[in-house]
Design goal:
Blueprint (H helix, E strand, L loop, with lengths): L8 H18 L6 E3 L2 H32 L6 H20 L2 H16 L1 E3 L6 H35 L3 H36 L9
Helix pairs in contact: 1-5, 2-3, 2-4, 2-6, 3-5, 4-5, 5-6
């Protein structure tokens, strides 16, 4: 697939602006703020791995398959092949360590951007900024690393025409973007916010 399928320079600029805005919200300039500790980053990575693994193994395959199956140009056999291809490819991505790899990048991004007053839980505004940063970054990563490979795998197994392949790619990418924005990103942000509220994280307490 050509890189042009994954967005234009304008879209990249909007993504960069969104991340920059979230970073500004997350990084208050008062002297009492501190960047996340290594222990907090590690805790965030664990949360991300657990959430992404669960989503990729259980909810996401069915939701992506439903989006592709809604295309009227596909036969029942093609829809079944696409559903199997999506489940197989996501399972392969889990075994290949995709959740762990994504967790490293996301945790590093938040670790660089997030600052909070020492000893305080994230405020509602900080939680909203975490959600914005997670959604933007995760959406970009999932589009580039999952959607195209899913569509290609489905095209091979279902012997799709070029037009059907484009339709499947569009449907998968659109549903994936919705999933990241509406469900996965929101849940991750809430779980990360709750984890950062735990005063034992990074405090040395057991």
């Amino acid at each position: 697939m050509k890189k042009s399928l994954f967005g234009s320079a304008a879209a990249a600029a909007v993504l960069a602006l969104g991340i920059a805005t979230a970073s500004a919200q997350l990084s208050p300039k008062d002297s009492g703020a501190a960047a996340l500790s290594p222990e907090q980053r590690s805790a965030i990575r664990i949360v991300i791995v657990e959430r992404l693994t669960d989503e990729m193994r259980n909810q996401l395959p069915q939701r992506l398959a439903e989006a592709a199956a809604a295309l009227s140009s596909l036969t029942p056999d093609q829809r079944a092949a696409i559903r199997n291809a999506i489940s197989t490819r996501l399972g392969d991505d889990i075994r290949d360590g995709l959740p762990e790899n994504l967790s490293e990048r996301l945790a590093d991004r938040l670790g660089s951007d997030v600052q909070m007053p020492r000893g305080a839980a994230p405020t509602p505004a900080q939680r909203a900024a975490i959600r914005s940063a997670i959604t933007a970054r995760l959406g970009e990563e999932m589009q580039e690393r999952v959607a195209d490979r899913l569509a290609e795998a489905a095209a091979i197994l279902a012997t799709l025409s070029p037009e059907q392949r484009q339709d499947v790619l569009g449907a998968v990418r659109a549903r994936l973007a919705d999933e990241v924005k509406e469900r996965i990103g929101h849940r991750l942000a809430e779980e990360i916010g709750d984890k950062l509220s735990d005063k034992t994280v990074g405090s040395g307490a057991k």
